[in-house]
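Minutes, project check-in
Item: structure for the 431-residue chain
Input as provided by the requester:
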Amino acid sequence: MLVFLYITDSFYQLSKYNFMLNHFINKTIVLIVLIFIFFSFRLPGQQRNYTIIISFDGFRWDYPDRGITPNLDFIKDNGVHALSLKPCFPSKTFPNHYSIVTGMYPENHGIIANSFTNPHNNQKYSLYDSAIVRDAKWYKGEAIWETAKQQGVITASYFWPGSEVNLEYRRPDYYEKFVYTRSYDERINGTIKWLELPYDKRPHLIMLYFDATDTSGHNYGPNSKEVNRSIALEDSLIGKIFLGLKKLNLFDSTNVIILSDHGMTELSPEKVIRIDELLLGFRYKTSDKGTMMFIYPDEVEKNEVYNRLKKSEQNFKVYWKKDIPDYLHYKNNSLVADIIVIADLGYSLFDGKDIEKYSKHFPLGNHGYDPSYLDMHGIFYAIGPDFKKGFETGTINNLDIYPLLAKLLRIFPNNNIDGKLEHIEFLLNNN
């Protein structure tokens, strides 16, 4: 500032002797002032805190009520939490993880299910096919790590869906390819190592994924002792991350967000809907199963197939694509089949070939249903310097996480999103 005043005074003395020089000096002073103001406002943006966002796949909204989550309880008392986090339809893993990081409905970002078929060329997308999962052509949205990368913010991801695509500019700066057998301690240690990097190489956003509650929820049902063990295990992981941050003296400068992509509900072998029996005698193909199913009938039988399903409509809903309820935000994508069947909560849709596969071990829990069912909701907990303390709110939407992350990172969000910062900004403190 002293230099600024000295320059200003010197220019003023010279201006007394030359009118033209005075004109030049005035413009120079204005320019200096503007530069000073610009950098003054920019400084806070350079002092962004770190953000770690952790996903517990299939961690239902009410699991913390079981009294086995001391670390989530700590966040509840010292940070913010929501009654529940509402997913998008379908309430499945890949569509919702990608909605969280893009702020877009699945119909807009393109990952419309865990597995689906492009009806125009018969190409298949499946979360079980690593080559397909890494093919960037399927991902139409701009993930938060892309937005951040464009604005000079370093990011990292440990197994977040969509983070390992085959285009470098669309990946985080640091990422790990999904390996199911990679231990949870290895994932945490890898995260801490990123934070041990020199400041100019250190990520300010880290995405981290765990699947214990989802796996046990499918195999044993959400009310099982196995799920309780998974709940306690994942909660303990939060404690390990907190400990790592404290050892690095980063705990007070790091925002930690704990969330889940969806919930889980109980299944029963008695609640099975056999599509093959309902459509006996018709020529058709299907895509996906369980909670919803795409139906691809022979073109000449399309109306008859729809009418047969509509006549048999019990414990499920059948829609022409154009008639899918607006609140599901699912009809405006060319990959969605002309006929879609959606099961009621707790019911399972299977074709003949699926029954044989699941006869040996029928899943006792599932998700993917209409997000209006509370069982499909996940969790949202957050703690850190940018969040309020001891604050709770009602249900929030996972679409709003993307603009929230952009706010935390002090970057400009992509404008082409469905989420709204104003729906979630109240969780932040006023500092």
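Outcome recorded: The two ends are 25 Å apart (CA to CA).
No further action items on this chain.
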